[in-house]
Amino acid sequence: MASAYGFPGFEYVSIPHPVASLSEPQIHERVRNLLPDLLRILGVE
Amino acid sequence: MDSSYVEDAAAVRRAMEYYADRGWTDGLPVVPVTESYLAEFLARTNRDPGAVLLAMPQLNRACTVRLAAINAALAGCRPEYFPVVVAAWESLAAEGYPVKGIWQSTTGTAPFLVVNGPVRGRIGLNSGGNVFGSGFRANATIGRAIRLGVLNAFGLRPHELDQATQGTPAKYTFCIGENEEQSPWPGLHAEFGLAASDSAVTAIIIRSCVHIEARHTRVPEQLATDIAGTIARTGALIHETISAAVVLSPEHARLFAAAGWSKDDIRRFMYDHAVAGRAELAAAGKEAVSSRTRWRLPADHPDALPVAAGDGPVRVLSSPSAVLVVVAGAGNAGVSAVVETFGPRGGPPPVTRIDP
What we know:
heterodimer; A: mainly alpha; 1 helix; 42% helix; 0% strand; B: alpha+beta; seven-stranded mixed β-sheet; two-stranded antiparallel sheet; 17% strand; globular
């Protein structure tokens, strides 16, 4: 998608599948795990 | 093959490898396309080569008449098939789900093309025996023309912008004619406002094709119940409701017609009898629907809407119009199919007239 829009280097965070079958605590855990990467991409130290 | 047919077979193979190396194929060899060959396809339509047939704004890409023609030629279409390909793209645009991104989805869908009218005879499009199978150039290559357009005009390649978990064999090609000659009813196109003498394509997004073995009965309610049970299988239920194209063999169509049933009667029966028991749904963890997506999920899911207790079975169709009825195949056995559609779950299908 990023390449299609002309931004091949666009950084993004991906969440591993499956997601639809997770419980609420499991979803919170996924989010906690990806937060460091998210903050790094957003430039938050 | 007599070598006089091809001046330089090695050159043809080099051209095929050129296309394969660039990822411009579906995995099978394609026909080399030159500007002069492309012109033969464009000569079959009055449309401007730059006219857009289907656009995907989310990708910033579009399939023009010229791109559709290139991919039809690559697919092995004869130039006279091209008006059918153009109408198929228009029908897909009208259907709406490709534009919304369904071809990139994990579900893994493909277009199902139903062709009606005199064009079937003119181009040799099969509507009889082995209608879902191989052996007929028009069926094989018209469906493939769309597939190659999806790959090459939109870049929806597997492992990249096409994230299908498993996909479907229909991704190679899935194009049939309706067997109007052996059908007791008006064709799909005539049912939805066109003249029987018109030619038309109806494009429907599908996921699966499930067969019905019913050689045992002459009772229309028994046959219809067999079909309704297949439509209602829990495995196909991702959303609250589903949709289907019932492709009846001529024998099954005649059985219904002899008992006085119309296509509408079949649709109404499916609406009333394609039902899932609440215990059956609960056993599969699909008894509730999400408050946000209306997807099916277990009642104890945090998104689940409360399940009404004590009622009867649950309809899996939201209206009779969620079912299309088409007649196709040979008149030699009680074998039919449910094509599990994955686009709009009701309303008129995108029947699209083919330019004469």
